[in-house]
Amino acid sequence: MRPSALRLLSRPAAVLGLATALALTGCAPSTSSGGAEQGGDDRTGTLRVWLFREVDNAPKQRIVDDVVAGFEKQHDGVTVDVQYIPVDSRAEKMKGALNDPSSAPDVVEFGNTDTAGLVENGALLDVTDAFEEWDETADTDPTARQSVTVQGRVYGAPLFVGVRALYYRTDVFDDLGLEPPATLDELADTARRIRQERPQMYGIAVGGSYTYGALPFVWAHGGEVAEKRGGAWTATIDDAAARKGVTAYTDLFGPGNCPPATCAQMGGNDTVEAFANGKAGMVIGGDFNREAVGNSEVAGSYDVVPLPGVREGEIAPAFAGGNNLGVMRGTGHRGLAVDLMRRLAGKETQERLFAEMGFLPTFTDTRQQVAAEEPFVEPFVRTLDVGAKFVPATPAWSAIDASQVLPTMFQRVVSGKQDVPGATGAAARTMDEAFAR
Question: Which InterPro entries does the entry link to (predicted)?
Answer without folding.
Answer: SBP
